[in-house]
Design goal:
The chain is an alpha+beta fold. The chain has 7 helices and 10 strands. A hairpin with a 5-residue loop joins β1 and β2.
Length: 256
């Protein structure tokens, strides 16, 4: 960006993860229990969001790479499988009976099969995935673009956020979820990815679809997405912070 490294959110979080690497559950759970860590994140969030929104236009693209840059190994992080009988029954069927539900503040609630998603306008992009733990990998993604999908269901005027409800459960009674605002939802690189490196998305990487929101850190890229809900507020979902890890102390805005 050309800004001093003190304003670099990626560098900021990399330093945090390096200092606390021994605590990371894949980093996240024990660090999230630290009051000092939660305080650092909450103070940084407003600054980093304003800086990125100021420096980058709403449509500026995350860097894209060539096929030669693809990582030999792309780590599958977080949940590697889903302990849910309904989900498990879909795996040997290639998710033929799976449906993505889109509801909330939309004029035309709908459910889409994986085949129907594959027939929607798509985008292919080779991007770098940056994890809060400090590692990065470059992968090739193909998926349905969010913009035409949202236009097809008709967002209501009061909608401000999209909430991605997922099949995996990382804590008792708490399924993974994430949320983004409409600026990122309508960004051209925001897709529902169903292919990775020219093959159908694997279960460890989030099959049948995962969110790719390329200007944010990895924990925002929700896997095993089952439902997208348009809402006016995040206050009544989970603990009201906008995501599974956000409810445990992470920033809601994870821009890089």
């Amino acid at each position: 960006m050309g800004f001093n490294s003190k304003l670099s959110r990626r560098g900021f979080l990399t330093r945090i993860s390096a200092a606390g690497s021994a605590l990371l559950l894949g980093g996240c759970d024990q660090l999230s229990q630290s009051p000092a860590f939660r305080d650092i994140l909450s103070k940084a969030e407003g600054v980093t969001q304003r800086v990125q929104r100021f420096v980058l236009s709403q449509k500026s693209l995350a860097r894209e790479f060539s096929e030669n840059d693809l990582s030999a190994h792309f780590k599958a992080n977080g949940s590697l499988n889903v302990d849910d009988p309904t989900y498990q029954a879909q795996v040997p069927l290639g998710f033929a009976n799976w449906r993505l539900k889109i509801d909330g503040l939309v004029a035309r609630p709908t459910e889409l099969s994986l085949d129907e998603l594959r027939r929607l306008p798509s985008r292919t992009q080779i991007t770098r995935h940056d994890c809060v733990e400090g590692w990065s990998a470059i992968g090739k993604w193909k998926g349905a673009q969010m913009t035409p999908l949202l236009q097809s269901v008709g967002l209501k005027p009061e909608a401000r956020y999209l909430v991605f409800h997922c099949a995996d459960m990382l804590a008792p009674g708490a399924r993974y979820y994430e949320s983004i605002d409409l600026i990122d939802a309508f960004h051209p690189q925001t897709i529902l990815a169903y292919d990775m490196n020219d093959a159908a998305l694997s279960v460890p990487h989030g099959a049948p679809i995962r969110l790719r929101v390329e200007r944010q850190l990895g924990y925002k890229h929700a896997k095993y997405v089952m439902r997208i809900e348009a809402v006016s507020s995040l206050a009544s979902i989970g603990a009201g912070k906008g995501g599974f890890w956000e409810d445990r102390g992470y920033e809601w805005y994870a821009g890089i």
